[in-house]
Amino acid sequence: MPEEDSELTKHAQPFHVANAVQLVLSSIVVLWSLFFAYLLCITKVYHRNLQLLLVNLPFTYALTCFCHMVSNLITILNGSEVIVGVVSNIMCTGLFASALNIFLILLERSIASFLARSYEMMDQGFPILVCTFINIQFLACVLSGVMSSFHLISNQLLVLISLFLNIVAFVGFALIPAKAYRQYITSSRNLSSHTLSERYQLAENYKSARLLNRVVLVICVTTFMATVVYYVGHFVIDLNKIDQRIMDFLFIITLFVQAIGIPVVIAALSKKFRDKCCVTFCGKTARVEHAVHIRNLKGNDLVVDVHRQRDVYFTEYQNAWR
């Protein structure tokens, strides 16, 4: 349209600046997501199944932002609209993959909660459960991408499914910590009816639930905002080119906040994760402590002498095996 083109020419400089900023942010998200996946692999501070699903998560962000970056480059270079459409299909598939990954983490944590008696011993060799989940995610994304390319399913429907999965995951992770805490307290009060492995798994479930409750809050809020922005900008309102670029800018900003925010939240809440990163990258060694600062499950801070802690630990360890 002549009016739209003249308006775009009038705002050419801000338009190119916005494109450049989006390219930089997309590149940062891709590189940071891959670096975060590397951190999760080398730290190994969570249950292996949970860790593999968390490692899989940054790759979905990297895929989405890489497609966004390619789309911007094609737009800047006045490339084919057909290629832009294909890239948009892949980007919608990336949004769907991110939401599906969060839902699979919820499913894995639910299985860990219901099968606490045997979950710690499951998949000691090959992680069959989580590999099955990842294969399901991969096949669902490939199938949805192919169907979208042949117009058998709309990108609009994929985005709506992504929104629904985010809402389900948010509600599910809001309920899991309370259930995990009740299970752990019950096992602590009935030591004879719960094995040591089961009590350990219940304690790990509760710690993971508290961490994931905050991490998933960041993930769901930012993914929900990004998906809503994408949905409104592409399917609800007929925008001109300038308004479309503004919506794309808001979209990549939310993904940028998400990609940076998740590692920050995990590092802030997990001392073990911070220590592993310090040892790996800073060469930090463990310090000799004369007192141990312990936070119990109710959140109270306790200061215990090291020798007393050692005696209590070995006494309780012996009692557990009797």
UniProtKB/TrEMBL annotation:
Keyword Membrane annotated: yes
Ranges that cross the membrane: 20-41, 53-76, 82-107, 128-151, 157-176, 215-237, 249-269
GO biological process: sensory perception of chemical stimulus
Keywords annotated in UniProt: Membrane, Transmembrane, Transmembrane helix
GO CC annotation: membrane
Residues in coiled coil: none
A Pfam family that the UniProt record links to this protein: Sre
Family note: Belongs to the nematode receptor-like protein sre family.
Name the UniProt record assigns to this protein: Uncharacterized protein
Lineage: Eukaryota, Metazoa, Ecdysozoa, Nematoda, Chromadorea
